[in-house]
From TrEMBL:
This is T-cell activation inhibitor, mitochondrial. It holds the Pfam family DUF4460. Residues 180-485 form the DUF4461 domain. GO terms for cellular component: mitochondrion. It comes from Petromyzon marinus.
Amino acid sequence: MLKHLSALSAPTAGWCPVPRLAVVARRGLANISATDVTNALRPFYFAVHPDFFGQHPRERAVNESSLKRLNGYLESLQRPDTRAPHPLHVTFYVRTTQPPPATISAGFTPVSFTLLSGDLVATVRDILSSCRLPTQHLAGLNVRHSPAPDRPIKWDKTFYTFTGQKDPDEEMRKAKVAEPTLGAWLQRHGPTAAERLQKSLPLRTAVQRLKEELCQRMGLQDIRWQRQWGVAHKNSQLHSLSRMGQQFPQLAQHLKGQTLLFTDQSGVNALGHIMLGITDVHHHWIKAVEEHPRLAMVLAQLRAAEDRARRMLGGASLAQRDPNVSGLSAHRALARLNLMRESALRGPPLFLPGSLRDLRLILEGSECSLRLLESGVFEVPVTSSADALQMFIAGNAREARARMNATQRLEAEALALAKECAERLGAHRVRGEAGLPPAALAECCRRLLLLPTAPHLSGLRGMRVCVSRYYSVSQDGEVVIPWQWRG
């Protein structure tokens, strides 16, 4: 959502041969120290700090870039000898610690706003309010007012023409239309995407061939990645795996029939997949591979605990957020189930056998709240009491089924629209970014299908398109567009 804030302050008065002036009354600008700014924005920094987005590299990159630009804007406001800065449009992904029930939660919400104020206190307030963060603590700030003339000067348009300085009113107008249209963006960045894609094609083929070769040589069932890493990263990881297999052939007996998952940490996940941390050395990988047979008992206990929990919960399925790339370790999953057995599942079954067999539950730590996701899946903290769990699920079971059915229909519709969109545009593929709601992907594809055939859309022919929340071109040549693109 684009939020236009207070107007730019006029430039300071100075000698100018232009004879005509328009004078308006205004108070001096409120100002605070750099330390006060940091303290006042502490809730904001906590909500957008890139370190909290380790599993979301694209959102992390957006926040890092936006923070650099925002800090530069704030520094310019604290320099009294500097003219009012130009409008700044930024986008942040804000962590949502307690999202509303209707949120399809990936743990963050995209927020866009434009800063136009020359007042530091007003800017701090606008940043917090734009991200829906509290502003009550600003009342206690030690605000000092910088001296300003009683009648600040607003120069005539010819002043800016004569001096070459930028007109704040014109800059404000440009800020309102700063986001490019889809066509303009494709015309500008399409050639770059096509060039990168062509350069990546041989490596893509080599990576797929190496993956199949390793699966056959090591007897692996599959090799997967937790996130959409670039093809160069995948190539490096596969070659590292190949070297480990050649240097330690005794590992083959432990790898046969297993699924390897490249992720952030090494170990064995709740599905029995062997996780290889992308930043770990071979020592950690070997430890994870050798640990798998020793975890057979833990995995057996985990399956038994899951069966007991399902019986207690009326046959409801215990789901993972993404069952194909789960990074939840087997030990942690078992610990969660044991903790839940001590809290909510100590007594008799909470529901009749099979009464909830069509519902799904995600078990989370004690930091989350008991809620129904928009997808129709229950998110359950393992420390929930039996009464609270029984009452909440029973009271929302009908709504959960309705949401699940709607989600399934919407997912099928979104996939069909993405396929149709790829065929119509001649694109190699159109996909939604991980965490993007199916409704957003469907809406984007519908709008693309309504576009008339235009020269700039021909730039998508043969391209890989990812529907996200912002514009970008990946190193592999994938075209990333926001689902709410402007026509």
